[in-house]
Amino acid sequence: MKLFLYSINYSPELTGIGKYNGELTATLSNMDVDVSVITAPPYYPEWGKRSGYSYSNFSTEIVDGVTVYRCPLYVPKTVTTLKRILHLLSFAVSSAIRLGFLIKKRPYVVFLIQPTFFCVPFTLLYCKITGAKSIMHIQDFELDAMLGLGMAKGSKIKWFLSKVETWFLKKFDCVSTISHSMLSIAQNKGVDKDRLIFLPNWADINFVTPQTCGKSLKKKLGLEKFDKIILYSGNIGKKQGLEIVIEAAKSFTSRPDVLFLFVGTGAHVDVLKGAAQKNRLNNVRFLPLQDWCNVPSLLSMADLHLVIQRKGAADAVLPSKLTNILSAGGMAIVTADIDTELGQLARQYPGIYKLIEPENSAALVQAIFDSLHIKSEHGYNKIAREYAESHLDREVIVKRFMQELRKTIH
Question: Which ranges carry the Glycosyl transferase family domain (predicted)?
């Protein structure tokens, strides 16, 4: 099978959708799928340009046997709603041009990753011309997240965007997404149940394990004096609402043994650093994103993990960072409403993590206080690790997906 993966994010991005796309193509290649990628130069999560890549010209490279077509991309220095839209549009337009030069390639499948929705019309047109099967994989309901965070105000705008989204979704041969609640959302948007496939995010369960020791990394980072480390690792953006963590840190200033550690970067990192400095919080530190080889040690080093999102965002998004936390057997606090996918998972597997209401600083402080006093019989969260072993194995997930895909599109 010849497959084009079409996404704004790809390796060597270390987090989020780009990381999963890189792992997906590697797994598909090992299954003798002929994979090519249409993508942009890496920019996430730091929202910056990296050396060695052109952001104004087209380029082609071979990465681990996969042909990667990179397209020009506008990367704003400061991220606003308008600049974010221009950023997404720049990729949609440049990648559409690239698609025009790839018509003769005639793949059997074009696998579009949402975000970004701006690429949808060009994907469907390309598939119409070449006869390829069109598949949309939804990592994030982009429009729902935007509307939930108030980026598009006005009921008429919401109604119009909803109608446009539904019309386009119905045009795809198949739609996949990462959680059962998101499958339900897609069905409610008009996608036929027979054209829906479950493709959850995964973890490298053989690499990220509870048995990894984090002491050497803790010493290397100069954090030995802290007995308890509360970790947020990943993208530091507006939609996470991480100001609530800064607020929570104020309640632990009398605990010199407790450190709130942010590891990562993003469009909102300077705002959080400013808030920590303004409040003179010596119990808050920021570190850059760590190399993948250090991730197991980083996760094991933490006594408590935070998976934070604003209200609305948690309804449509299943955080990718959670899979590795579960694989590491981490103790975690997750902010989400009870009727979301995260809420349902917490009910189905009691103890997998502690669920609290989003944007409730008092609840977060109490949850942190309670969690720091929990002593695990096994030295890690056994429920979380067992869930990862039975549900998050990458090879099993991708093989099952490809079997379902072949049934659906043949």
Answer: 217-375
The superfamily in CATH containing domain 215-390 is: Glycogen Phosphorylase B; (3.40.50.2000)
Residue 342 has pLDDT above 80, yes or no: yes
**CA dist list (Å): 311 to 115, 148, 149, 361, 388:** 20, 8, 8, 13, 26
What are the distances in angstroms from CA 399 to CA 18, 293, 370, 402, 406? 20, 25, 40, 5, 11
**What does the pLDDT look like over 223-259, one tens digit per residue?**
988 889 999 998 888 878 899 999 999 999 999 999 9
**Of 32-46, 154-168, 170-184, 342-356, the least confident:** 154-168
Fold held by 2-202+393-409: Rossmann fold (3.40.50)
Return d(Cα 287, Cα 84) in angstroms, integer: 25
Query: Where in 96-183 does DSSP place strands (E)?
Result: 109-114, 133-138, 174-177
CA distance 307 to 319: 8
pTM for the model stands at 0.85
For every residue of 271-330, DSSP letters joined together read HHHHHHHHTT-TTEEEEPPPPGGGHHHHHHH-SEEEE---TTHHHH---THHHHHHHTT-
d(CA 111, CA 27): 15
Q: Angle at CA 112, nearest 5°, toward 32 and 268?
A: 115
d(CA 123, CA 8): 13
DSSP SS3 for 381: coil
Pair 177, 320: CB distance under 8 Å: no
Angstrom distance (rounded) from CA 145 to CA 116? 12
Side chain identity, residue 78 = T
Positive or negative: CA dihedral 146, 57, 45, 30: positive
Structure tokens at 407: 């049934």
228: enclosing H helix or E strand: strand 228-233
- The segment(s) of the chain belonging to CATH 3.40.50.2000 are 2-202+393-409, 215-390
Task: Supply 151's token pair.
Answer: 């980026």
Quick check: 72 pLDDT over 90?
yes
- Rounded CA gap, 353 and 341, in Å? 13
